[in-house]
Specification:
Blueprint: H1 3-11, H2 23-34, E1 39-47, E2 50-59, E3 63-70, E4 78-83, E5 86-91, E6 96-98, H3 101-116, E7 126-133, E8 136-145, E9 163-170, E10 175-183, E11 192-198
Antiparallel strand pairs: 1-2, 1-11, 2-3, 3-4, 4-5, 5-6, 7-8, 8-9, 9-10, 10-11
Helix pairs in contact: 1-3
């Protein structure tokens, strides 16, 4: 069930804990998103292994419904529901089943640390001012992200060079709308493309087993 942790890694790319330049403005935008009744993050991640698409519905502090699908040749659609300290998964539409308590506890802890609470990140964002993106004006912010390291100090295959993260904030709502990561050497190649939207009235309940 490795897919379940990808959402938390993805969302940890959003807000930063350091306060420098325009970083505080980015933090405030994500803090406002976390205070909303419910929101969705739709993500597209591309690397050498293919493309992963993911939709995460959140009702904070402790409810999540995640749907993940891989590009051709992958294991098919996978779902997970987390409520408090309990979690259920549906692998390839085979039916829902409760996951082991230890795994559910780990996922709940990850959600608390990287979604319900501000991620512990040291990126510093600079202001780009008002930017027209896909036909609409947003307040945009950019941060450079150094190469990520895998366990043991080896460079992670998908992030062995410096990347650039750009966050687009809806000026009226004061909340993030898009979060895009590209290689510094190729700004048109999207490694990570996240879209945020509010989901007022959304409810996440245990699945029918």
């Amino acid at each position: 069930m490795r897919f379940s942790s990808l959402a938390f890694v993805a969302l940890s790319l959003t807000a930063s804990a350091a306060a420098a330049d325009c970083t505080s403005e980015v933090n405030e935008a994500f803090a406002k998103l976390r205070k909303s009744a419910a929101f969705r993050m739709e993500t597209r991640i591309t690397n050498a292994q293919g493309t992963l698409t993911m939709s995460n519905d959140y009702v904070l502090p402790d409810r999540m419904h995640q749907t993940v699908s891989m590009s051709a040749g992958g294991p098919g659609t996978m779902e997970m529901i987390l409520i408090g300290g309990k979690a259920w998964s549906n692998q390839g539409n085979a039916g829902w089943a409760e996951v082991p308590e230890k795994f559910a506890t780990t996922i709940a802890k990850q959600m608390k640390e990287t979604v319900a609470e501000p991620p512990k990140d040291e990126s510093q964002f600079e202001c780009l001012g008002d930017v027209i993106f896909e036909g609409k004006a947003y307040a945009a912010y950019r941060a450079k992200r150094g190469p990520t390291r895998a366990e043991g100090g080896a460079a992670a295959p998908a992030a062995d060079t410096a990347n650039v993260q750009t966050v687009y904030v809806d000026k009226a709502l004061g909340m993030p709308v898009r979060n895009i990561v590209t290689p510094e050497s190729d700004p048109n190649k999207r490694l990570f493309d996240g879209t945020f939207s509010l989901r007022d009235g959304l409810k996440i309940e245990p699945p029918k087993l």
